[in-house]
Amino acid sequence: MGPLNGFTVIELAGIGPAPMGGMMLADMGAEVIRIERANAADLKQLKDVSARGKKSVVLNLKQPEGVETLLRMVENADVLIDPYRPGVCEKLGIGPDVCLARNPRLVFARMTGWGQDGPLARAAGHDINYISLTGALFATGRRDEKPVPPLNLVGDMGGGGMLLVNGVLAALLEAANSGKGQVIDVAMVDGAAQLMWMFHGFEAVGAWDATQRESNLLDGAAHFYDTYECADGRYISLGSIEPQFYALLMQLADLPDAEFGNQHDAARWPEMTEKLAAVIKEKTQAEWCELMEGTDVCFAPVLSFTEAPSHPANVARKTYVEVDGVTQPAPAPRFSRTPSSVAHGPHGLGEDTVATLAAMGFAESEIQALREAGTIG
Length: 377
Fold this sequence. Notes:
- By secondary structure, the protein is of the alpha/beta class.
- It has helices at 17-27, 64-74, 88-92, 96-102, 127-132, 153-178, 188-195, 197-204, 243-252, 257-260, 269-280, 285-292, 312-317, 353-359, 364-372, and strands at 8-12, 31-36, 54-58, 79-82, 107-112, 182-187, 225-229, 235-239, 299-301, 320-323, 326-329.
- It contains 15 helices and 11 strands.
């Protein structure tokens, strides 16, 4: 049983970071109930990994009966995840004031891009926009080339989904002491800004040039912190920052001290990068793995995400699991006494509607009336 066993989370259907947060809470043992529309896509058919471990309830929130049904469910919940733009829940009649009146211990977690207030609060946006406004996108890419989006990992997932879980867990801990719930304003732009904390410090002491890409220690400028093509066209990554790790890199790659000895001579980084690239291209990825993997060089082969589950380190750690034939990341972090787990793969659209309402105290006659009114599906 996971550490959140006994907690109930209602997740209003959305995309990206909110479902990721709900997935992590479900992995940790919470009962996560996803509220969906009758005409929504079937996440089981789509093999949507974020739907694992969740119950699927179809509810028409545009009907008064649907709103009242949700509010009765809220009375039995610990958390509600709102993935909509600011004001949408209020218009539906399920805003935080209404929900907290029905359940004062409720944690009402609001997941948006720009936050609940401010000049951009009601504007549409995506990960690429949120990381643009925080400097994260500007800093990512090669010098004199356009910025490169780091997938949607920084804004949506790290700055959104992870921050959502962080906030929910903190609010649940506080509610255990105070007996009171609260509203959490989780904004992807805020999360992306937090992820940039290190570089603000670097810039403040003159250790980072924020005006250029590929000009600094961690952005690909340093020859000892970059990726390199091998003889077989595949790639490796090096992160030999500390002097002892760099010394080992020089030893194992047979790099002459006269050419590579002054590690932090930034003026010579381009030259050393070019020379190191030529050395790396003399061997295949497998040959470099045999020579460096598992050493303190800070080395790893660059794998695709379909290759990653087969790497021996990931196999040994059970970093990936297979659920309903889909290979996917295993739950994390790992708990010694109350381990997380994937209870099941995605359920079909509305598969759990009747059973969930019955478990929450709805009478059979009430459920039948809701079905006949088209409120549930």
